[in-house]
Amino acid sequence: MARIDFPEEVKRLIQNLKRLPGVGPKSAERIAVWLLGQSSEFSEELATAIKESGEGIRACGICGFFESKATGCALCADGGRDSAVLCVVEQPTDVLPLERTGAFKGAYHCLGGRIAPLENIGPEDLRIDALVARLSEGEVSELILAVGSDVEGEATANYLAELMRRSFPELEVSRLAQGLPAGGGLENADELTLYRALDGRRRV
Question: Looking at the whole model, is its pTM more than 0.85?
Fold first, then answer.
């Protein structure tokens, strides 16, 4: 007796869903079955949104943030930003939580990743040349390194800091402060977090 399985169309849908980050085989099956239960109008709308995003969105050639082919890059088009302060982040998605704070009014530069030797990602694979080109224009006086605090993030920050010291000795380079989360107590903090909180303390 032949083994019963999903029709080929559904199996192809599941295979494509499994390629999404964080979606395993079981999750892909659940999503596929859920999609099959939706109306044809929803499926068409979803397919159109995916197609239009793929065709109409690209990385901005200047800052690396999401750029619409129709309307351009919202960051680069914002004339009210302080171009003298440049915040370096790993991915375009890292811009959004910083923007939601309302505390930063400067410009951004998205690297498109971080230095990760185990994944064969080196400095040449990131948008570091584009960063150097922006700094060479002479408008930036402070560079904020807002990359991750894990091993790869630290490696990226150290590489950039050393590069800036050699290439732009007059440039002020800073790193996001790290320490205790808001509302958190000392008993729940690990040693590294406490060390950074002490090291980054400020006068009140």
Answer: no
Sort 114 into a burial class: Cβ within 10 Å, 0-12 / 13-18 / 19+.
buried
- Helix or strand run (H / E) with residue 150: none
| Model confidence pLDDT, tens digit, residues 188-203 | 767 777 777 777 766 6
pLDDT digit string, tens, across residues 116-128: 998 999 999 999 9
* Cα–Cα dist 134/204, whole Å: 35
SS3 193: helix
* DSSP string of 70-138, one letter each residue: TTB-HHHH-TTSEEEEEEEESSGGGHHHHHHHT---EEEEE-SS--BGGGTB-GGGTTHHHHHHHHHTS
Amino acid at 23: V
